[in-house]
């Protein structure tokens, strides 16, 4: 019990602020509602930026997600790809595009 509580506290410190929503669903319903009205930024992203800042966590389509907004934050993440973060796609996207698609490739190209 003590170790579990300690691990939870450590993981919370490493994650940005935000809400994960309901288990498995997360905030997917709110995300899709805003997207269907073509107001994703105004109704989903902007209120969370106002509440949590330019970097916040959420859960979309069953996957924990960190949203990064702003030039400096994007530059930091993109310049440190594969060092601090690894880009990934939802399992539904991988199934749709296939395991051999370019979006599933990571790391440097090694010639044959």
From TrEMBL:
Looking up Gene3D superfamilies in the UniProt record yields: Cytochrome P450
Top-level taxon of origin: Eukaryota
Q: Which terms are listed as keywords in the entry? A: Iron, Metal-binding
Q: Enumerate the InterPro entries for this protein.
A: Cyt_P450_sf
Q: Which PANTHER family match?
A: CYTOCHROME P450 26, TAXADIENE 5-ALPHA HYDROXYLASE
Similarity comment: Belongs to the cytochrome P450 family.
- Name of the protein in question: Uncharacterized protein
Organism of provenance: Vitis vinifera
């Amino acid at each position: 019990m003590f170790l579990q509580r300690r691990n939870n506290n450590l993981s919370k410190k490493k994650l940005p602020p935000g809400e994960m929503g309901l288990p498995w669903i997360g905030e997917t319903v709110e995300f899709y509602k805003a997207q269907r009205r073509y107001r994703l930024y105004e109704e989903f992203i902007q209120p969370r930026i106002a509440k949590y800042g330019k970097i916040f966590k959420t859960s979309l389509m069953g996957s924990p997600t960190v949203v990064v907004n702003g030039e400096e934050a994007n530059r930091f993440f993109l310049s440190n790809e594969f060092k601090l973060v690894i880009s990934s796609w939802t399992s539904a996207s991988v199934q749709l595009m296939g395991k051999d698609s370019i979006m599933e490739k990571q790391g440097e190209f090694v010639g044959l």
